[in-house]
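re: ur question from earlier - yeah i can do the single chain one, its not a big deal. heres the input i used so u can compare w yours
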Amino acid sequence: MFDFDLKHLVPSHIQAFETYYPSKPDRELMRLYGVDHLHRLNNNENALGPPPEVFDVVQRFSAGNVPVYPNGDCFDLRQKLAEKFGKDADQFLVGNGSCEVISSVIKAFCAEGDNIITADKTFAVYEWVAEFSGFEARLIPLKDDAFDPEAMLDVMDRHTKILFVCNPNNPTGTYWDSSTMTDFLDRVDNRAMVVIDEAYCEYVEKEDFPDGMALLERYPNLIVFRTFSKMYALASLRIGYLCGTREAVDMVRRTHIVYSVNTLAQRSAVAALSNDGSFIKQTRQMVGNAKRLLCEMLDKLGMTYISNEGNYMMVLLPISDTLMYRKLMKEGVMVRTMTGFRFPNWIRISLVQLPVMEAFCKAFLNVLKKTT
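and the output i got, formated as tokens:
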């Protein structure tokens, strides 16, 4: 066999990029840690599951659909989104999760030498896609656990093409209120595209929270991301979408892979939108109950934590986050370690039903007792 030097074919920015390895399947994790159950508090999933209308779609999905390609541009779903938000269907682009639309936006607007701007402690995919695409990601430190608009504006230059704002922010749950957001958009002044990622917007009940869909009427350089993975509990179906002006979305569509969203995902998303009122209210109630339980426990322990918007909280530990992860796994509880988010020795906890949160509290207290 001839010697083969792979590296001379691979760009330097790809060689420098660190591989991301997802966690193993639940059944394998349970085997490794010797447990017969696993409470998933690591990925901010909606533990209530999707609205009942989605169950009907899944149960009626026949094997006859399998050999037929899905609709390539998610026609029915885009019509439903247009109806819900009072916009044109061509203003929407649907992807295989929000990660795909992030990639499509960056490919559409960035060229060699360009940069994107976002926070240093936020959803990492903005940074990852920019860097493995060969573009600079300028990462601005959080200020009071929130995006810093002044610092983001200060580092803009003529090569800045996109500013990503996660609102509310994952993992801190902070958000820009309406006045902060509009002031920021005014000062960007159409010099670059602004992406507002509203993956967790349905969890926010505050009156001063800005509605990105409404802001689109005023700012032609704005694109809004939303997802069906979080509130609507369609995470395994991988479906998210963006909305912008017809002109901006047309440019993004040129870089977007068609047929990437499967038929079951499209039909389930349409069904989820048909019942989001009572379902969202029920989910918010579950999150609120869980948050109160955890805050009460952490206050009694005198521990530092971050509890804002979204269906998650963060806790600063007296031990390493990886050690806490391993110890909790042996109790059948899975959390997210936050060192990779640049929060060393913090964990993030998804907020779910009270019996599971009580199981987490018991396991957490047991680990602390044995290790501190």
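The longest strand covers residues 160-166. not sure if urs matches, ping me
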